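Q: How would the structure tokens look for this protein?
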Amino acid sequence: MPRVKYTDADVALMARMMRAEAEGEGKQGMLYVGNVIVNRVKAACLDFKDVRTVRKVIFQVQGGNFSFEAVQKGNVFYNRARSVEKRLAKKNLDYWREHPGKYALWYFNPYAPCPPTWYGQPKSGQYKKHCYYEPKAGTCASVYSG
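A: Here is the predicted structure in token form.
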């Protein structure tokens, strides 16, 4: 049973997002970005209470801007998803979770050392240039399930 409900269109959109956000960090980096997307679909908490689909997560607006830089800048649409990214996205949607993105709801590339917290949320780890952050203990139990 998949971690979240999805369609073929969700797989393609998520694959494009993973490629746009983390292609330079290879397959592993793209998988961590995929973890964050799936975790946001599952998160019935914080800023993610009303985003229950991959599409809503990717196009979510927070503070007047799209949540993901690849959507803000439009580069999520520059390239079609290749079969390799689609396989990675499907892997995330079906079962794959791994540290530091395993429970992460946020990531960013600070172009400097990762701060220990980001907007009050603890750092779960780093992969190459991206820092990953998960919700504070007790604030989002849905992320830690299934």
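DSSP finds five helices and six strands in the chain.

The helical segments are 8-22, 26-42, 54-58, 69-72, 83-94.

Upvote if useful.
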